[in-house]
Amino acid sequence: WWGKWEERQPSWFVRAAVEHFSTKDQMLTLALAAPGPEFTDFEVSRDHWKLARETGARITAHVGVGSYGQDAKVQEMGEAGLLGPDTTYIHCTTLNDTEIQMIVDTGGTVSLASPVEMMMGHGMPPIQKFLDRGLRPSLSVDVETNVPGDMFNQMRSVLGLQRALAAVEGKAPISTREVLEYATIEGARANGLDSKVGTLTPGKQADLIMLRTDRVNVTPLNDPATAVVVGMDTGNVDTVLIAGRVLKRKGQLLHVDLQAVRGVASDARDHVVEKSGFKVPSI
User: Fold this and answer.
1) pTM to 2 decimals?
2) Is residue 91 situated within a structural domain?
């Protein structure tokens, strides 16, 4: 979380862990989205890591974010023995090579939000640096006010980026199937959920996305993985199941008052615009 460290935070987090996350065999699992060592003092980050580990929660942190990532703060955490396989590092764009190797050596996972990292000037998404060290990334969106919030956009972005880098550096290009795995099983692994979701495997939770193959953007259908990564978009999403429960069917969301959601979003936008004094561009 953001903001200054408060004395009540540890007890609140522990209480939430005990009362609401007593087992990992449930729909929601607990993780601590810590500010990370680039945005707080070392001692605060150390205590965040300790708090998460005392409650069995995974840790996520945004690191290597533009100029904030150039002070070797992750290296300091690594030298103190605080990095581990329970942590997912997001962005990593300006980390030094020692820090990247520390993440790999300690079994950490990484999540790249390639469109945001380029759009907001974080730095070059370091996909090739991690692939060279044998670590495959997961993909994430990060800031939905800047880029589309769907995984098709994420997959295409990282595919094009890696292939451009590979061509310049004489490296092997990744395949569309590999990128599809970044968006599925690698995401599950980064959240500590790869034993439950991420692949269509007997015994795993029935989290399914059914995609339409009869739309013109994938006609004629040839290689399925390439069709998903290169050709499809959100309009191809027909049905979505989470733990066997259908949440979207025939392209329509179920169990959601979409009009009410739009109203709340518009009201929130109007409040922020009014308070900030920002002038919305005219249509």
Assistant:
1) 0.93
2) yes
